[in-house]
Amino acid sequence: MKDVIVALDFKNRKETMAFLEGFKEGIYVKIGMELFYSEGPEIVREIRKMGHKVFLDLKLHDIPNTVKSAMKSILRLDADMVNLHASGGSVMMEEAMNACREEGKKPLVIAVTQLTSTTEELMQSELLIDRSLTETVLSYAENAKKAGLSGVVCSALEVPVIKEHLGEGFITVTPGIRPLDSVAGDQKRIVTPARARELGSDYIVVGRPITRAEDPEKAYKEIKKEFLGV
Ligand SMILES: O=c1ccn([C@@H]2O[C@H](COP(=O)(O)O)[C@@H](O)[C@H]2O)c(=O)[nH]1
């Protein structure tokens, strides 16, 4: 099912609740490091209780044993979607899935491939990855699928190649969304909501174009309409 996920990149509960007050119905939100580190696990429970679906974006990346244990803690929060970095390796991803099995929980577990703020040039010159960005993202996605994950975080630009090689059912969650009139900021691999739809994204993640809009609910509705095409 396709949807728009709103990144709640706020510094505290107060700002977050003020933003959510504008929404009459439950929406799909993303709680990332800024809000989670500031408010702790309780903010996840509270937002779920309000009827919103939650993508808990903590991007786990550590040794396999630590990721397995951290995933067990995270699973207690019953988020709908959780994630980790594919660059942590296959064993790390397998251990995250073992945590889900042992706890009897089935959130969507997705792997970050290359951050949408990364360019091919940066990846090759700073991370010393000597392949094209597309090849790298696809290889990370293949590892994620083999480890049993549900999908990946990538740019919408890489969705066609991922779907072609790994199937329509392998989920693509795509940040780096910028409507025509918005500023890119630190994002590099960007597309509009309409282009993300054409490229086949399952979920688009949108932060500042909504949270910093004059009328966030209106911006959300316009982006949703452009992405879903209805
Ligand atoms: O590759 C990635 C992975 C995660 N993100 C997160 O998505 C949002 C995007 O916010 P904008 O304000 O729309 O840029 C943000 O929370 C990132 O942490 C990403 O952008 N790229």
Give short descriptive properties of this protein.
single chain, 230 residues, alpha/beta, 8-stranded parallel beta barrel, 11 helices, 44% helix, globular, binds the ligand O=c1ccn([C@@H]2O[C@H](COP(=O)(O)O)[C@@H](O)[C@H]2O)c(=O)[nH]1
Instruction: List ligands, each type once.
Output: the ligand O=c1ccn([C@@H]2O[C@H](COP(=O)(O)O)[C@@H](O)[C@H]2O)c(=O)[nH]1
Shape: globular
Radius of gyration: 17 Å
Strand order of the largest sheet: 1-2-3-4-5-6-7-8
**How confident is the prediction overall: mean pLDDT?**
98
- The H/E string reads EHEHHEHEHEHHEHEHEHH
Low-confidence stretches: none
Beta-strand percentage range: 15-25%
Structural class designation: alpha/beta
The major β-sheet equals:
8 strands, parallel, barrel
Would you kindly provide a written description of the structure presented here, covering whatever features stand out?
The protein has 230 residues and is an alpha/beta fold. The protein is built from 11 helices and 8 strands. It has an 8-stranded parallel beta barrel, surrounded by 6 helices. Helix 9 runs parallel beside helix 11 (216-228). The two termini are 14 Å apart. The site of the ligand O=c1ccn([C@@H]2O[C@H](COP(=O)(O)O)[C@@H](O)[C@H]2O)c(=O)[nH]1 has 15 residues, from strand 8 and helix 10.
